[in-house]
Recover the amino acids of this structure.
């Protein structure tokens, strides 16, 4: 059995079917030609134009200013900007912090532009720009921040007044919605920004069905995964992680060795593991709640890096003791693998999109209104792939799928 | 209609649709055979793909994607819709492997065919691997095109296919 044999399994379609289908296709009308505008249409356009001229004349005669903002909804509204509420994530398109300058919105980003995101999201930003902008001849650079927390502040600061249409990142991929403080700076510097949801990033805990799943809390996951944990004797001091058995993490768990198969730490799912699971577990431990930086992923034998997430699901079938951390959905092709809850919440599209599942986060693109704004975001949002597994290797769930 | 749309229409009209059909119909037909692992529904899905493509051919943009990429994207979506409708009818989602493996609709001879045997062997593979096999050996398209369709890199496509063929060979 080889390549040639596999090719030979191909067959020619039945000639009768091919003929019948072609006849049906030939009956379809040709591509829709341009519609000629009717006389009535021209008359309506003329009336509308006259009306517009009349309205502007009235405004001038009454001392009004044609430049005044007409759409009151477009005025910056702190309430609509939101803070970090994930429940508003489904409000995919929102012009936040528009003002009268937003009238200068262009429909297309400039030919050369810069984007900004964190190191952990760079592959997704590159995917988006490579797929949706480079084919249009755009030359795009990505400025990378160290963490998603820094991205908003740096991006809003970079939108210098009067230079919004020039150098500097015009687009940012971030992990939360804009807060009021960000909005103030962005609005002052850029005049307005638009936002769209570009999906979610989610990881799940999996185990062979032979052994059954754990119900782990974020703190337990942290204590099993982190390179350093609080010293039980002095919780304000960090020590190298001494936990080798699950019962070391929590006496109620089984006395089994900690054996975790997870993504390559430098990959996008690996960085997500650190930023989503480790971070939430770290912050749930009182002694670490206020530390500046949470400990990194452990590098001893308890954690094994596996480059391909599908291989993790496959390996779990032969390693019933091991716990796997894989992108949401990557288990569906490994029949003998079971997904477990985190903090009592099972991963599902509902728990991910509402922000109740601790192993997920929402992703948004923000864009300077001068350099593309809502039309570009609409284009991007509509073009995102619907195929469920297209972005699974990045642990990304596209928004279209999330709405199913 | 915008100028851009008009240009797209003109470009679409410039394609020799008869030649496109003659070349692509067997590819799409075999893509569905490999994906479903059986002959049933293949003609229906092939017809749906071409009907959808023909209806939307004015929207095809030669500057954004090759015609094969565009057509197979439609084929992939048709297959996803088909599986969703099967799910709505309370049939197992994984119709491909399961139906072929159970073989209930097929005759004994079909069950023993190479296609059914391939379906049985690939049923435990991840969906992505099954998709790659169908695109490579069913549709007969090259790794570059497969990479565009699946979002994988070209080298990754080659590596995965090599590994899958080795696995199949060992089980055959």
């Amino acid at each position: 059995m080889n390549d040639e044999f596999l090719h030979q399994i191909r067959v020619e379609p039945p000639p009768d079917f091919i003929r019948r289908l072609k006849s049906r296709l030939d009956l379809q009308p040709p591509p829709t030609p341009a519609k000629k505008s009717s006389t009535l249409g021209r008359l309506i356009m003329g009336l509308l134009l006259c009306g517009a001229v009349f309205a502007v004349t009235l405004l001038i005669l009454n001392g009004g200013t044609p430049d005044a903002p007409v759409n009151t909804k477009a005025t910056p509204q702190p309430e609509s900007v939101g803070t970090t509420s994930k429940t508003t994530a489904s409000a995919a398109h929102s012009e936040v912090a528009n003002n009268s300058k937003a009238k200068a919105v262009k429909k297309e980003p400039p030919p050369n532009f810069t984007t900004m995101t964190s190191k952990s999201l760079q592959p997704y930003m590159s995917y988006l720009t490579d797929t949706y902008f480079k084919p249009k001849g755009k030359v795009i650079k990505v400025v990378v921040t160290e963490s998603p927390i820094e991205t908003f502040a740096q991006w809003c600061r970079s939108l210098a007044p009067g230079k919004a249409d020039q150098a500097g990142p015009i687009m940012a991929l971030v992990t939360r919605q804009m807060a009021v403080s960000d909005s103030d700076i962005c609005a002052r510097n850029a005049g307005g920004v638009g936002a769209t949801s570009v999906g979610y990033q989610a990881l799940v805990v999996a185990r062979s069905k032979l052994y059954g799943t754990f119900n782990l809390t974020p703190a337990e996951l942290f204590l099993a995964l982190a390179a350093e944990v609080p010293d039980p004797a002095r919780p304000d001091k960090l020590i190298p992680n001494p936990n080798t058995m699950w019962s070391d993490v929590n006496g109620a768990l089984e006395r089994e060795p900690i054996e975790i198969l997870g993504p390559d730490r430098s990959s996008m799912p690996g960085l997500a593991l650190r930023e989503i699971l480790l971070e939430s577990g770290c912050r749930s431990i009182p002694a670490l709640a206020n530390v500046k930086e949470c400990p990194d992923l452990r590098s001893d034998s308890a954690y094994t890096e596996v480059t391909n997430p599908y291989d993790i699901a496959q390996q779990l079938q032969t390693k019933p003791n091991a716990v796997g951390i894989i992108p949401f959905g990557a288990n569906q092709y490994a029949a003998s693998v079971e997904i477990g809850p985190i903090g009592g919440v099972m991963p599902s599209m509902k728990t991910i999109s509402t922000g109740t599942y601790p192993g997920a986060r929402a992703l948004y693109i923000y864009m300077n209104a001068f350099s593309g704004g809502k039309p570009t975001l609409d284009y991007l949002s509509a073009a995102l792939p619907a195929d469920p597994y297209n972005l699974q290797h990045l642990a990304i769930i596209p928004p279209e799928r999330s709405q199913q | 209609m915008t100028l851009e749309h008009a240009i797209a229409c003109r470009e679409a009209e410039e394609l020799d649709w008869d030649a496109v059909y003659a070349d692509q119909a067997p590819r799409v037909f075999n893509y569905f055979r490999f994906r479903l692992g059986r002959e049933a529904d293949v003609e229906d899905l092939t017809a749906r793909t071409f009907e959808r493509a023909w209806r939307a051919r004015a929207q095809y943009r030669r500057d954004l994607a090759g015609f094969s990429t565009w057509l197979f994207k439609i084929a992939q979506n048709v297959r996803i819709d088909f599986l969703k409708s099967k799910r709505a009818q309370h049939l197992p989602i994984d119709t491909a492997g399961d139906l072929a493996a159970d073989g209930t609709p097929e005759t004994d001879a079909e069950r023993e065919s190479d296609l059914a045997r391939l379906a049985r062997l690939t049923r435990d593979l991840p969906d992505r691997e099954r998709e790659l096999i169908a695109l490579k050996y069913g549709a007969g398209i090259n790794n570059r095109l497969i990479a565009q369709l699946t979002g994988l890199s070209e080298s990754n496509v080659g590596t995965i296919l090599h590994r899958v063929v080795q696995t199949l060979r060992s089980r055959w």
Summary: Confidence is low (pLDDT under 50) at residues 1-10, 90-112 of chain B. Chain B has one domain: 3-123.
